[in-house]
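Propose amino acids for all 257 sites.
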């Protein structure tokens, strides 16, 4: 599958960034631009997100294969992989399936374990927005308020709203809501083909987030023995959005080390 991407910078060292669920390469433009001053940075839209193709198949195996295809098509050698949340699981799956195909990895606020479904209300909210009659983002925000109390999360979701010229300029979602809804449990699944990978891996967590717990460290060590965990104070699950400066500094240090 040919993924949509954005590119910043031109350097021998290449970074590939994968967003989380409901996200896109758009969310990473600011950080990608700053990292692009030192590295070549590719920001990808994963399948069923952003401007990448849609598919009924939606799991970590196919998303890892999408990444492999992207690396091959663009002639990239030994990239540094960065993945946030769902994107973090994609890069971990990729690392275990293709251990020789990358140099280092940064996994942002996710562990290689099973997570119960916790996006049901958001999906109900997205489905409740009547795209046929929708007049504005403000109206969509009002609908989402019934399902998601955080203004920040709602604004993040609303970045996926656009006017689709193929549908008479009606509002449309840039995410494949039906397929994501059908496969939402898959997003929380444990990874397949689990075995240890020896490249350096940085797990970067938000100190205010609950996604990586102390008891997860044993599993991390089993799969990625050459790992380190760092926390960023004052950051929640969206570490890169909450503390962009600290995020960039830690990632740059890790890539250059």
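Proposal:
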């Amino acid at each position: 599958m040919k993924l949509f991407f954005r590119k910043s910078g031109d350097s021998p060292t290449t970074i590939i960034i994968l967003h989380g669920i409901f996200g896109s390469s758009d969310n990473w433009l600011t950080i990608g631009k700053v990292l692009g001053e030192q590295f070549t940075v590719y920001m990808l839209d994963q399948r069923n997100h952003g401007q990448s193709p849609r598919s009924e198949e939606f799991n970590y195996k196919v998303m890892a294969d999408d990444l492999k295809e992207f690396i091959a098509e663009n002639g990239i050698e030994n990239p540094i992989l960065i993945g946030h949340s769902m994107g973090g699981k994609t890069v971990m799956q990729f690392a275990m399936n293709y251990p020789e195909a990358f140099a280092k990895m940064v996994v942002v606020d996710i562990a290689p374990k099973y997570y119960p479904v916790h996006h049901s209300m958001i999906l109900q909210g997205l489905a409740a927005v009547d795209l046929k009659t929708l007049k504005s983002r403000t109206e969509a925000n009002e609908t989402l308020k019934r399902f998601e109390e955080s203004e920040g999360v709602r604004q993040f979701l609303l970045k996926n709203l656009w006017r689709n010229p193929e549908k008479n300029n009606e509002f449309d979602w840039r995410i494949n809501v039906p397929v994501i809804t059908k496969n939402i449990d898959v997003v929380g699944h444990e990874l397949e083909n689990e075995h240890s990978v020896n490249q350096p891996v940085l797990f970067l967590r938000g100190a205010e987030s609950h996604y990586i717990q102390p008891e997860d460290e044993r599993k991390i060590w089993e799969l990625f023995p050459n790992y380190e965990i760092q926390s960023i104070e004052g950051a929640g699950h969206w570490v890169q959005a909450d503390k962009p400066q600290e995020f960039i500094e830690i990632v740059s240090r890790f890539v250059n080390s």
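Residues 120-182 form one domain. The beta strands are 5-8, 14-18, 40-44, 80-84, 104-108, 161-164, 170-173, 201-206, 227-232.
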